[in-house]
Amino acid sequence: MQTLWIVGILLPMLLSIIIPAFDEEKKLSLDMQAAATFLSRNQITGEVIIVDDGSSDRTAALAQEASLSPGIPRIVIQNRPHRGKGHAIRTGILASHGEYVMFADSGLTIPFEHILKGLRLLQQGACDLALGSRRLPGSIIRREQDWDRKIISHLFHNLMVRWMHVPSHLTDTQCGFKIYRGELARTLYAECITEGFMFDIEIILRAGNHGYRIMEFPVEWTCDRDSRISVRRSTHQILKEILLIRRVLFKSKSRDHT
Length: 258
Known about the structure:
The chain is an alpha/beta fold.
């Protein structure tokens, strides 16, 4: 079941900012205010879209009540039951109106001003998808991951390159700060079949299959120790999604070459 609140939609708009949220009542108001302030400060026409992914706290209520800069429209979508981050982001992107679309993890782990780097790449025609990366030489890490998460992240990246054929030049597929051309994003996410952790990988692979260009840009990142995502707790679901992606995308790619 999905509940939708829309306040003040104004078209046309340049940028849609999507923030997926699961039990984020302690963070979400600051996230929304920072996103709206970024749009106002840079005189960017845009909207802030919150997708509450089946929270058990007051996440959705606070998203509706948060005080935003004047003239910044908001969309609040409440999904029931909890489905996963990939499903939440797909829901937000398909509800977006912007010429460009981006999503950011809750918790202000990356300042919204870094959107300008990705937008510049897209507007200059350098790429079709601009992905924030914590592992480029110009990136600044304010607070590191714990050592165990670093190891898991490194192993996951190597697995994705070797087994899923993710382009080896991409350094950080899981960074929660990605910007797309709007119509491209709505097309790719409408095709997306994964709802959890693996959605980033699926979108990258689909973009590559379509011939879209992907570039990364450096960001300033602070690790959020209160993250709702746990690779270890989600191992079974991740393996299921890996097999699903391989079965659907790799089989389709094989047919295209015959």
